[in-house]
Specification:
eight-stranded mixed beta sheet, 15 helices, 428 residues, alpha+beta, 19 strands, single chain
């Protein structure tokens, strides 16, 4: 470090911040990584699934040493009513290509490992620091303030998570719109190896990802999830904040109801609660993205609203890791030129725009609005459940399957089905 100025300060040692710090430090930049928690991952939360491709690009072969829980080879998607469940299931072998794999992870372990890789590359970590302000001079970000301490840098990357107050203070982001945010609550429940195998089908290092729609979020935008770890499951739900005024059930109570659902409760019997967490989740997609670049500052990860909820899978960490890497690559290019203006740092936007991150966000830009439809979480699970119940119930003379299907479609509203189907197909 020269003149007591870091080349780069990264705020937030989650996966985006660690990827940025690792990339910059490996290129020789004097890099400081600051983290609010006592260690990386202490305050980070995910449902539990990491799609490997973006980290594989950054660290080829990372899975050989990272603290991963299980590789996902079984997928389930359930539609729940109060009592019933209709489930789709897909089972595969472990993909041969490392970049095609996905893993369950526990952030307290995984983030510490990733942060350690950044430190090995040369980044300096200071944990337990709450960054309260940015140092601004002539409209340019020049560092951070933490209590009485000031730390200066040529560039600051904000990777401080959803609802970044620092991004607001830098004039890059506005207060989050409730329509674009959700709250996630999660428990980690510990099970014996026999329970993991017998209840969840976990064999060797292979595991399960399971999403639930309908009853878990009280008929509003959201849903439940269950991911199998080495000796535990991560179970929880996500609830769209804008639906809070339409329900009487607190989110914590929704989680208890979800755990007590007839299709879920038997799976959890005997599980030992070892962790509880809650977090804000950015789910607005392209519509909620802030300005990504200012003079001396960039935004990555959840702070940039990089999350995609497709209904059947939810992604955030792969987007965060790629954005952190690309932000650092832009800083490296600017460092070589000695120019850190917003115009120079816009190289980040160009890199991001050419990457899968923006391509996927543009591809699914209509999806958040398409999913914001109560019928997806009430009428359609009831329709699927009712049809399945009638198909598998024999109590007298039968009737044609087409008649049963039409009867349940009429209950849900045939025009609604057609309209929602067209709308949903146009969004995916």
């Amino acid at each position: 470090m020269s003149d007591d100025i870091f080349d780069l300060i990264v705020v937030g040692a989650g996966v985006a911040g660690c990827a940025a710090a690792y990339t910059a430090a490996r290129a020789g930049l004097e890099t400081l990584l600051v983290e609010r928690g006592n260690f990386s991952g202490a305050k980070n939360m995910t449902g539990g699934r990491l799609y490997a491709h973006s980290l594989e690009q950054l660290m080829p072969g990372f899975a050989e040493e990272a603290p991963l829980e299980r590789v996902v080879t079984h997928e389930k998607l359930s539609f729940l009513t109060k009592k019933d469940a209709v489930t789709l299931e897909y089972a595969s072998g472990v993909p041969e290509a490392m970049a095609e794999r996905s893993y369950t992870v526990l952030r307290a372990k995984f983030d510490q490992w990733l942060c350690g890789k950044a430190e090995e590359a040369g980044a300096q970590l200071i944990p337990g620091i709450r960054v309260e302000e940015l140092i601004m001079e002539d409209g340019r970000v020049c560092g951070i303030k933490a209590g009485e301490d000031e730390l200066r840098a040529r560039v600051v990357i904000l990777a401080d998570g959803a609802n970044s107050l620092l991004a607001e203070r830098a004039g890059l982001a506005r207060r989050p719109d409730p329509r674009h945010m959700a709250v996630g609550v999660k428990e980690v429940l510990e099970f014996s190896p026999e329970m993991m195998r017998n209840r969840f089908g976990c064999v060797g290092k292979e595991g399960l990802a399971w999403l639930f729609a309908g009853d878990p979020s009280d008929g509003q935008l959201g849903g439940g999830f269950l991911y199998t770890n080495e000796e535990s499951v991560s179970l929880g739900l996500v609830f769209g904040l804008h639906g809070a005024a339409r329900v009487q059930t607190p989110v914590r109570e929704m989680l208890e109801n979800f755990k007590n659902h007839p299709a879920v409760a038997p799976l959890l019997d005997g599980g030992k609660l070892v962790e509880y967490s809650a977090h804000i989740v950015p789910e607005g997609g392209l519509a909620m993205m802030p300005k990504l670049v200012g003079d001396g500052v960039l935004i990555a990860g959840d702070a940039a609203g990089l999350c995609i909820n497709l209904g059947y899978t939810v992604r955030g960490m792969d987007l965060a890791i790629a954005s952190g890497r690309l932000a650092a690559e832009a800083v490296i290019a600017c460092h070589e030129k000695g120019e850190y203006s917003a115009a120079a740092l816009q190289a980040y936007e160009r890199l991001l725009d050419a990457s899968f991150v923006m391509q996927d966000l543009r591809l699914y830009r209509k999806l958040p609005e398409a999913l914001n439809n109560e019928r997806l979480f009430t009428a359609y699970p009831e329709m699927a459940s009712g049809l399945m119940r009638e198909m598998f119930t024999v109590n007298g003379p039968g009737r044609p399957l087409r008649s049963k299907l039409w009867g349940h479609a009429r209950k849900a509203g045939a025009m609604n089905l057609l309209k929602d189907g067209i709308r949903f197909m146009g969004a995916i």
